[in-house]
Amino acid sequence: MSDDPDDLKTLFEQARACRLCAAALPHGCRPVLRGSPSARLLIVGQAPGARVHATGIPWNDPSGDRLRQWLAMDRAAFYDESRIAIVPMGLCYPGTAPKGGDYPPRPECAPLWHPPLRAALTGVRLTLLVGSYAQAYYLGDRRRRTMTDTVAAWRDCLPEFLPLPHPSWRNTAWLKKNPWFEAELVPALRRRVAEALDG
């Protein structure tokens, strides 16, 4: 893949026009992703939620508020495409499951779009793997038995990746049960992100 910014622009246009899973998406296709060749940080989450689907703005919901809190980053910095790329495992909102929570990302999406997008995002120095779906896809054998174990072993994933729990408010109990995350990992996360963006 070349460093030509037009290559990435074309890829993003193709991804945003993707309709591969249209028949399986109850709310239709609206791929939500962003980035530029100069982006130093890549955030890989799960899939857009209902509010993100409605607005077309990634992490534009309470989960995004918590993620920005972890990063000590305001919205202007977070949405600076020249520095931060955002590509979820599933580009479109998969809909809400009957028992609550969203369905998993569509399985067709990441194998189709992540390899070429990652190859074109040539400036990325650090990738945040937010949640178990991103960790399973990117870490392979380095992934531990549980999400908690994977996040606790975050040092083993550096320097390329840094695994995080999903910042959903449904995970508030997890955060209370694992105080080491905010005491130890969040400060390290902020340092690593600053180094990737400013180094």
Short description:
Helix content is 42%, strand content 8%. The chain has 199 residues and is of the alpha/beta class.
Describe it for me?
With 199 residues, this protein is of the alpha/beta class. The chain contains 9 helices and 4 strands. The protein has helices spanning 5-16, 50-55, 62-71, 75-78, 109-120, 132-139, 147-152, 172-177, 180-198; strands at residues 41-44, 84-86, 126-130, 161-164. Strands 2-1-3-4 form a 4-stranded parallel β-sheet, with helices on both faces. Helix 1 packs antiparallel against helix 5. It starts with a helix and ends with a helix. The model has no long low-confidence stretch (mean pLDDT 95). This is Uracil-DNA glycosylase family protein.
The largest beta-sheet arranges its strands as 2-1-3-4
Helical percentage: 40-55%
Sheet of most strands: 4 strands, parallel
SS strand fraction: 5-15%
Low-confidence parts: none
Overall 3D form: globular
Number of strands: 4
Based on helices, strands and strand pairing, what is the structural class?
A: alpha/beta
Report how far apart the termini are: 24 Å
What would you report as the Rg, rounded to the nearest angstrom? 16 Å
H/E topology pattern: HEHHHEHEHHEHH
> What is the number of helices?
9
Mean pLDDT: 95
InterPro entries: HI_0220.2, Uracil-DNA_glycosylase-like, Uracil-DNA_glycosylase-like_sf
Protein name: Uracil-DNA glycosylase family protein
Domain Uracil-DNA glycosylase-like: 32-190
Organism: Azospirillum isscasi
